[in-house]
Amino acid sequence: MSDYYLSILQGALLTVAVSLASLFVSTVLGLLGATAKLSGKKPLVWVSTLYTTVVRGIPELVLMLLIFYGAAIGINTFFESIGSDFTLDLNPFVAGVGTLGFIYGAYMTETFRGAILSIPRGQMEAAWAFGMGSTQTFVRITLPQMVRYALPGFTNNWLVLIKATALVSLIGLHDMTYLAKQASAATREPFIFLLFAAALYLVFTSISLWALKRLNARYSLGTEKVQL
């Protein structure tokens, strides 16, 4: 029995890796999407709006299966049609991270867009009047203030993303959910091992809430405190 618990703990490390990698991808896509939506350029606004609308309207599991199976089949069919011997074997870790990052990038886009809109525009105009460029204004004026407004939504997205990593077990990635199901099938005691995996998820989310509350307190100095 102890071997099963140890394997689930090892799978938990993979779950953390998938979560953090997906968070990085989703944050980058969220910043790009929010910038595109607020750019005022119609093509960028249209593409970013289409992205957030479509992704938020399709279940995560459907998108993951589409990317893992459909993308590989489509790419291989394309290369076969042009006479190439190239075949794509999509890695489950890459597929899981890419899919989760792509999905939650849409949610992060709306979170960051709302946070940026909460900052008085006069502050950015003052920065431009002092000769700051767009990049310098974003890094020195917008980003520090955006963090405080974005943290509540960012926290919710992160907590949901952690729980959504359980979906990668369906594409063959040996995370802790996959290993808990394997242990349950081998011992015919599903309650014990699935409850252990659930407890690990609760530990991860509790640590995340603690860390993000401290971060929120750091960026809320001098302002009214906001409960996450």
Automatic annotation (TrEMBL):
Major site of localization recorded for this protein: membrane
Keyword Transport in record: yes
Source species: Comamonas jiangduensis
Name assigned to this protein: ABC transporter permease
Topology class, membrane: Multi-pass membrane protein
Localisation: Cell inner membrane; Cell membrane
InterPro entries assigned: AA_ABC_transptr_permease_3TM, ABC_transp_permease_HisMQ, MetI-like
ABC transmembrane type-1 domain sequence ranges: 12-213
